[in-house]
Amino acid sequence: MIRTTPFHPRLSQLNTQGLYTHWQGHLSALRYTHAPKHEYFAVRNAVGVFDTSPLFKYRIHGPDAERFLAGALVRDIRACATGQAQYTLWCDDGGFVMEDGVVLRHSESEFLLTAARPCLGWFEDLARRLRVTLEDVTDAYGMLAVQGPRSRAVLASLMPEVEDLAYSRHLQATVAAASVTVSRTGYTGDLGFEVTVEAQDAVEVLDAVLEAGKGHGIRPFGEEALMMLRIEAGLPLIDVEWHDSRLAFTDEERVTPAELGMGWMLRGIADDDRPFVGRSAIRRELTGRTSRWASVGVVVDWAHWNRLHRDAGLLPPKDEHPLPYQSMLYDAATGGTQVGYTTSFLYSPVLQRHIGLARVRPDLSDPGSQVHLELAVQHHTARVSASTAGLPLFRPARKTAGR
Amino acid sequence: MTGYDAIVVGGGHNGLVNAGYLAKAGLRTLVLEQRHVVGGAAITEEVVAGFSFSTFSYALSLLRPEIVQELDLVKHGFLPLMMPSSFHPTGDGGYLLLGDDHDQNVQEIRRHSRHDADAYDRYHHDLDRVVQAVQPLFDAPPPNVFGKDPEDQADVAWLLKHLGSVEQRVMHDVVRLLTGSASDWLEDYFVHESVKGFHASSSIIGSKVGPMSPGSGLVLLFHKMGEHDGQLGSWAFHKGGNGGFTQVLGRAAEAFGAEIRLGARVGTVLTREGRTLGVALEDGTELLAPVVVSALDPRRTFLELLDPLELPADLVDNVERMRFRGVSGKVNFALDALPVFPALPDTVDHYGGFLNIGPTIEYVERAFDAAKYGWYSERPFIDAAIQSVVDPDLAPPGKHVMSCFVQYAPYHLRGSDWDTERMRFGDTAQAVLEEHFPGFGDLVLHREVVTPLDIERTTGLTEGNIFAGELLAPQMYFLRPAPGWSQYRTPVDGYYQCGSGTHPGGCVIGSPGRLAGQRILRDLHPGVSGAHG
Ligand SMILES: Cc1cc2nc3c(=O)[nH]c(=O)nc-3n(C[C@H](O)[C@H](O)[C@H](O)COP(=O)(O)OP(=O)(O)OC[C@H]3O[C@@H](n4cnc5c(N)ncnc54)[C@H](O)[C@@H]3O)c2cc1C
After folding, report:
1. Among residues A2, A315, B75, B400, which one has the fewest Cβ atoms lying within 10 Å of its Cβ?
2. Which residues contact B361 (CB under 8 A, 6 or more apart)?
3. CB–CB of B230 and A216 under 8 A?
4. Is A396 helix (H, G, I), strand (E, B) or coil?
5. Residues B222/B190, Cβ–Cβ less than 8 Å
6. pTM, two decimal places
7. Computed from CA positions of residues B487, B488, B491, B495, in that sequence, does the dihedral angle turn out positive or negative?
8. A63-131+256-291 has which CATH code?
């Protein structure tokens, strides 16, 4: 049986399309109106809400909770203060990425971890004799992402304390008589927050947010808009940018944190002595410089794109729906060798360019390296010029800025 | 040295685009704008505290995408917010609401006419083919078909080759649109009066034609030449209004090194022996440069900034004969809340784009009648937009700004004048809105009425013509603004034209500024590859 989220009773009323996909066994709206792009613009220009409840949520607590997480996660949880959120990865022994998630630290000894895939078993196996309790609280909470330049004004009208909530911090507050956790986090690359609320209060909290957002152009957005937003923001998605290393057949299918563009998480691990799963392999990779790929953005040469299509008698397409397959990247100099591939590719309305998330040979990771991207034009393969760029491709100051 | 390489007269969007290209190529470029703000007919002003009105032009489509890239506009804040819908009340309490989803649009048309459901696809496809055929001409300078030198002949050969490559059926459609009426064109596809009315709305914008007049087909096609994100004919509201867009252009031009001087009204272009020397401001200041570009309309470019005696008589004749008959006004509202359309009481989405008040072709044609006899429509056509629905920054939370483009409002009134009629003109528009949105009047917090005379006074657009010269076949392409002078040059060496009165024409489009920029740079650096290379 397909499940529904705690916000579903209200959000389904607002869904004029009846278009859903299945997200970890839950109905998840693809879009609410006929125009996903409009929902996307709500986030880039006003405010939108997204139901992210299907994420798995694990409460991790006990005297050894910190020690436990320090040993399980790639980033050092000890650097995550109470009231802070930390985006992190976890790896297998080979230093290959399994999953990513966000940890909210609620106290010295209590954490909430969200993850895209179930992972309780793996964490439990690691807990061994540590004094730590892991609870799957996935169904007990709804999570509502409130994202976009107006998100702060909307939430602050309900909870004034949100006004000063810094990037990557969280706090407890009350909305519609319900207690909620509000974190300055999200998956859109914009100014935004996520509100975690007990399931039974979810609809009331949602109603309060929608009401507060009325004059601000608020609207719910679905997965289609989310996909555009997260690609512009350079945020990788499991099973698109990478596969859980435990479920991969070959190392070719696997990526390391550095290869996934998360090298910044590894700063300092050469010197500190924190043991965590995958550490030795990761250190070997870093010292031996054996990373096979670098994650970069690619930006297509617009004039070449237009010319290729016009010469074929077509109107140059600018489709904001991601390509459902990977495109190969070739060396621009020789035209011959394959030097990488895109994992996500679409036309970005705010950047007015075709962009992609890609993996290229490390020597091409410098922004501005020239590559050729393979595409199909009129039943023929063609190659369009593109250059590499640093991630994220879209990075508004408001995302991390104070009030 | 304080000299400039180029002076651009007029900081409307075309002047800014032109300055951007010149500065990007390394020319020390100065823009002189008479007003306290750049943008010309594309400005957004906070008329009442918290409410930003796009005083004149209000939506974006025609802007050539190349300009966005070549002038790095994204870096400076370019952000077109796609319109999610187009709303067309049918006059009987019903409506046509079209959006982004093709299949749902077909069903919406089918709700009104089963016949028109599949015509809808055919119509758009045929129109796209026409746009595709015309686009290369749109994006390049017109060949000088009267010229005899090898470059002209090469350009003409390019044109003929291109036309020769267009499919017979498409070419026929091109001619039908360029010469015929929108009504005739639409009748080949649709039977339902409101479906035709909806599609006819763009055929009269800014033009002294009714949808049944020959020539309205050209206006319709012109308004389909635009695009957003590869969707031909689609429209958007720029973030912060069209004034938000021209601010982006101003920043981009400055980033390339152009200097913009506000409050600087140019009186004359200085010449000696057939060459330009620079300009004299009205306050007497002289500013020198070997290149002067007029971004004003052809009347001002040739007859005001220059002494017509310096020009060939046939050019002066042609510019005097050029038609500038403004027929449009604006009525802009600050609203306390969204208006209510009785058949859609609880939704917002029908207000996301254009609200097209002109239910049928006949309604619009009757509105046009008045204009033929020197009067404004008692029941005008209105192209309305509540921009604050997609851009909440334009109004305080929960409140709205509504832009109404009102037609017909002929510049020359018989037996009265616009300063006398301003209020009543506003009332006629408001009365029509009241018909469709009962209770509308109670929502009005502030009303701004912009007559064709106001357009002329503020922007300098002759007779308030929004395109700086009507979109009439004899004033288009290699005839715009005048035969022999369609390539951005003038008879005065070093003096160029880049306003909407040059090819391809009006709207917030930027092409005149861009193509003129290319012309100037090629004249300065001969040998750089040709226009159609
Ligand atoms: C009411 C109205 C609604 C419209 N709606 C739309 C729309 O929704 N979408 C669209 O695409 N197009 C629309 N248009 C058309 C479009 O706005 C114009 O075609 C376009 O903006 C003209 O740009 P321009 O740069 O050629 O000229 P202008 O914008 O007219 O710029 C000329 C500039 O020169 C300045 N100037 C004049 N004389 C002098 C002088 N002597 N010295 C110095 N400076 C001087 C003026 O102040 C002005 O800034 C509309 C126009 C009007 C009037």
Report:
1. A2
2. B182, B183, B186, B193, B196, B197, B200, B211, B212
3. no
4. coil
5. no
6. 0.96
7. negative
8. 3.30.70.1400
